[in-house]
């Protein structure tokens, strides 16, 4: 049974298979939100809110659209993160990543901090919305069509942003290498 | 879904043709970004609690 078939059933008040969607997307959505908030509690809250919104708005999905459930749920999660930052009225500085509080169970928090630092050292000169597109394309493996639906940008614009930023990374890495060569 | 790096590089070069000689470098950058994806784990307790609340 595919996503849209499950949604069709939910629309008829049969939620018996909704858990299939839940199991399929819970990890992806949590990780997507975590990468954008760097905070376990906030990520859990926003993930919960995303799934409640999915359930409450499931009637609004037009299953005949190309608009897949995948892009729809990511869009809800993406908007939740945007609303979270709007409500906090602050832009998360990329340096805030260093301030993640380690919680008691620690899972892989320390590794994550180091890994995330590494990631953002690498791409920190890019605009946040451009980082989002890189992450959606390369980490979430979303298509340009899906990214377009999530970000409200045209497919062509998403492709241009992605390509231009790859070009910038390519140039910046060259400069970094040259500087390193001179230092050595 | 597996990312097809060659396809992505082709798309980049189509829009940024001056990168045509930088294929290898682009491939390495792509590989680096993909590889540094942090291994984030979701708490099982949270997953189960939310599932209970939803159903």
What does this structure look like?
The complex is a heterodimer of chains A (184) and B (55). Chain A has helices at residues 3-11, 18-37, 40-57, 69-88, 109-123, 128-138, 144-151, 155-183. By secondary structure, chain A is mostly helical. The longest helix of chain A has 29 residues, at 155-183. Chain A starts with a helix and ends with a helix. The model of chain A is unreliable at 94-107 (pLDDT under 50). Chain B is mostly helical and 55 residues long. Chain B is 64% helix and 0% strand. Chain B has three helices and no strands. In chain B, helix 1 (5-15) crosses helix 2 (23-35). Chain B is elongated. Chain B starts with a helix and ends with a helix. Chain A binds chain B through residues 15, 18-19, 22, 26-27, 30-31, 34-35, 40, 44, 47-48, 51-52, 55, 105, 107-108, 111-112, 115-116, 118-119, 122-123, 134, 137-139, 141, 159-160, 162-164, 166-167, 169-170, 173, and chain B through 1-3, 8, 11-12, 14-16, 18-19, 22, 25-26, 29-30, 32-34, 36-43, 46-47, 50-51, 53-55.
Quick recap of the structure?
The complex is a heterodimer of chains A (184) and B (55). With 184 residues, chain A is mainly α. Chain A has eight helices and no strands.
């Amino acid at each position: 049974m595919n996503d849209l078939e499950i949604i069709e059933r939910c629309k008829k008040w049969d939620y018996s298979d909704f858990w299939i969607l839940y199991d399929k997307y819970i990890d992806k959505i949590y990780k997507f939100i975590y990468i954008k908030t760097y905070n376990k509690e906030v990520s859990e809250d926003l993930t919960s809110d995303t799934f409640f919104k999915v359930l409450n708005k499931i009637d609004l999905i037009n299953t005949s659209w190309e608009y897949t459930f995948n892009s729809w749920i990511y869009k809800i999660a993406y908007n939740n993160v945007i609303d979270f930052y709007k409500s906090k009225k602050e832009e998360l500085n990329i340096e805030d990543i260093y301030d993640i509080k380690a919680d008691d169970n620690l899972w892989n928090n320390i590794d994550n901090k180091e890994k995330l630092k590494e990631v953002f050292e690498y791409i920190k000169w890019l605009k946040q919305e451009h980082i989002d597109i890189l992450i959606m394309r390369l980490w979430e493996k979303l298509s340009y069509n899906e990214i377009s639906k999530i970000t409200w940008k045209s497919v062509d614009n998403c492709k241009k942003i992605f390509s231009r930023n790859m070009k910038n990374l390519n140039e910046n890495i060259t400069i970094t290498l040259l500087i390193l060569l001179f230092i050595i | 879904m597996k990312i097809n790096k060659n396809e992505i590089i082709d798309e980049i070069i189509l829009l940024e043709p001056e990168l045509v000689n930088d294929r290898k470098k682009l491939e390495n950058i792509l590989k680096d970004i993909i590889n540094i994806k942090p291994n984030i784990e979701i708490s099982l307790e949270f997953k189960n609690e939310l599932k209970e609340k939803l159903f």
